[in-house]
Design goal:
18 helices, alpha/beta, 41% helix, SAM-dependent_MTases_sf, seven-stranded mixed β-sheet, CFA/CMAS
């Protein structure tokens, strides 16, 4: 009798991770290896999964196998990724060992199981952009790839609030305090930090589906302009503006932030947009926003950050799941870089607040929405697209929980004559809000661009599976790209 697939794969697992690994591997021939009651189960549905990993023994190879359905992970994906992360970390688990024994075991398994051959075609959801990196044309394509998935798909994932950035949980999430409450609190937190009041003129760069400009106009009486590169976002936001009777106070444009010519504005919000700018354009971004503000005007820059250290290859990691499937050309920067660039452009940074833990709760809620309506999500997009979102949101939640990723609100002011800031003397006064606002029956009905972002997948499933085939992934880019805002 010939060997089962599980028996062929067992030496690969033993060589890479050791013999006492709490993971069950189910194979396409019905065989299994590993504890029957293991908390994590990985299902190889086809030998094509192995061929993908042979040709790309890294994060990208695993992502292709998962997105195509050649590999499935049973149960709570965030819990599974957490356990894989612990296994791959030598300080907490066995670590990933790649030596001659592992290479030999992989070669024997691939040959015996017929996994050698031409590389399988990547899933249709994978993209590789052409043109000058962070040129306006390429940036428009990158934004369209992520945000023009379909407004109905976003509504399913985001829920009634239709807000696609880190929420602000003033209470613990639960039946009495839902995601919609936390998103409403976030919109108002931004408005209060900007000191909005009737008569002010506000710009929202990367306005997404218009959530902030609608909230600012309705609750604070400002006039607002929102710019986005996504046609679908703009159409949705314009419809919401008309439905709420705010056409005389809110304008939505399909426009690159670099092309906004009509300052001065009294306040600018940039929520989850800076991740798309790129390090090479970050100084241009800060300088242009500074030029659009009136003296004493405020900027609220809300962005995901990575830990300090070298940014890696500025042309992008060729094996990055996030770059190929989620946020092409997206780049994260350390918080210190953002502060330095803003102040170098002439801003004075006045307040910094981390919302990192809030993003974990936000992402959990989004994954829950997706999984609860999985069949509808597949119908609205594709099975591969739904898997992309599930993987990137769960991976990002782990990235934020483990502090590999951060998300920060940086409040800066363009000093007025004599260096005056116009800001209150205490933070309590700042957050109390300077405007006259009407928050009765406020319900955010459209959303903005989301987070970022978490290429911590290279240290997650890619670490435990992909790295078992080619060696530990460099720590350069595993926290260097966005998954949401």
């Amino acid at each position: 009798m010939g060997m089962t697939v599980a028996q062929v794969l067992r030496p690969v697992v033993d060589a890479a991770l050791g013999t006492e690994v709490p993971v069950r591997i189910d194979c396409w021939d019905g065989s299994s290896t590993g504890p029957a009651d293991a908390p994590v189960a990985v299902h190889f549905t086809s030998r094509r999964a192995l061929r993908r990993l042979v040709w790309a023994p890294n994060e990208l190879g695993f992502a292709r196998a998962y997105v195509s359905g050649d590999v499935e992970i049973e149960g709570d994906l965030l819990d599974a990724l957490t356990r894989f992360d612990a296994l791959a970390d030598p300080d907490r688990g066995p670590g990933v060992h790649v030596g001659r024994d592992t290479v030999a075991a992989v070669a024997r398994a691939a040959l015996r199981l017929g996994a050698l051959g031409l590389p399988p075609r990547p899933p249709a959801e994978e993209i590789r952009l052409s043109g000058r990196r962070h040129g306006q044309g390429r940036d428009a394509k990158a934004v369209s790839h992520h945000y023009d998935v379909g407004n109905d798909f976003y509504a399913l994932v985001l829920g009634p609030s239709m807000v696609y950035s880190c929420a602000y949980f003033e209470e613990a999430p639960g039946a009495a305090y839902a995601l919609e409450d936390a998103q409403r609190a976030k919109l108002d937190l931004v408005a209060r930090k900007l000191g909005l009041r009737p008569g002010l003129r506000v710009l929202d760069v990367g306005c997404g589906w218009g959530s902030f400009v609608l909230h600012a106009a309705k609750a604070y009486g400002v006039t607002a302009v929102g710019v986005t590169l996504s046609q679908e976002q703009a159409a949705f936001a314009r419809a919401a503006v008309e439905a709420q009777g705010l056409g005389d106070r809110v304008e939505i444009r399909v426009q690159d932030y670099r092309d906004v010519p009509d300052g001065p504005y009294d306040a600018i919000a940039s929520i989850g947009m800076a991740e798309h700018v790129g390090r090479s354009q970050l100084s241009t971004y800060a300088a242009h926003l500074h030029s659009l503000l009136a003296p004493g005007g405020r900027l609220l820059n809300h962005a995901i950050s990575r830990r300090p250290g070298p940014p890696g290859d500025p042309k992008g990691d060729r094996t990055s799941f996030i770059d190929r499937y989620v946020f092409p050309d997206g780049e994260l920067h350390p918080l210190a870089t953002t502060v330095d660039v803003l102040e170098s452009a002439g801003f004075e940074v006045r307040d910094v607040e981390s919302l990192r833990e809030h993003y974990v709760d936000t992402l959990r809620a989004w994954v829950g929405n997706l999984e609860a309506s999985w069949d509808e999500a597949v119908r609205l997009s594709s099975a591969g697209r739904a898997r992309v979102w599930r993987l990137y949101m769960a991976g990002s939640a782990l990235g934020f929980r483990s502090s590999r990723l951060g998300v920060n609100q940086v409040l800066a002011v363009k000093p007025g004559p004599g260096g005056s800031s116009g800001l209150p003397r205490t933070r309590a006064e700042l957050l109390d809000g300077a405007g006259s606002r009407d928050l009765s029956d406020q319900r955010p009905v459209v959303a903005r661009e989301a987070v970022a972002p978490a290429t911590s997948l290279g240290l997650l499933v890619g670490s435990a599976l992909g790295r078992s085939l080619r060696g530990p992934l460099a720590a350069r880019r595993d926290v260097g790209r966005p998954a949401f805002r």
